């Protein structure tokens, strides 16, 4: 008999259990990773509809490949490798550069800062969030993706390199440039305020 699943059950263990036919293991994986995966696509500059479609495409690939899954790397590395590939495929299908969408309709409401009793504080928080999203959207695609994989998906540098198909040094360089450009843009915004 398989041990009972807990919130601390390792993702690889859950995926192996799903491969063995335990649907609850897949449900636990989905619940754990659906939010971060969706935000990964949103922060790539995709709209809410495209992000949701690509997220579902990733989960369908996981479902179809469950019998071939081998726990050789962290599950999140496997998940974001699929997400990266789906994003690249979508980009190729569209045959043009994806538009960056940073407007009210494309903001994930769950990610907005909580409101306070002070409208001035709320306005400053909202402006800061918007400035960060704009700065993130202004990064080159490769730097933005490396930043999101590191910060949102919490992947290691080696895993970021693996997912994006580059060397560890290239991934490290992309992250360094992303952080530098974000700091620069945010500092410029603050000094002009």
Word description of this protein:
- The protein is mainly alpha-helical and about 190 residues long.
- It has one domain: RNA polymerase sigma factor, region 2, helix turn helix motif (Rna Polymerase Sigma Factor, Chain: A, Orthogonal Bundle).
- Helices cover about 65% and strands about 0% of the residues.
- The protein is elongated, with a radius of gyration of 18 Å.
- About 25% of the residues are buried.
- Mean pLDDT is about 80; it is low at about 95-115.
Summarize the structure.
Helix content is 67%, strand content 0%.
The SS-based structural class is mainly alpha
- The H/E string reads HHHHHHHH
- The proportion of strand residues reads under 5%
Report the C-alpha radius of gyration, rounded.
18 Å
Features:
193 residues, mainly alpha, Rna Polymerase Sigma Factor, Chain: A, 8 helices
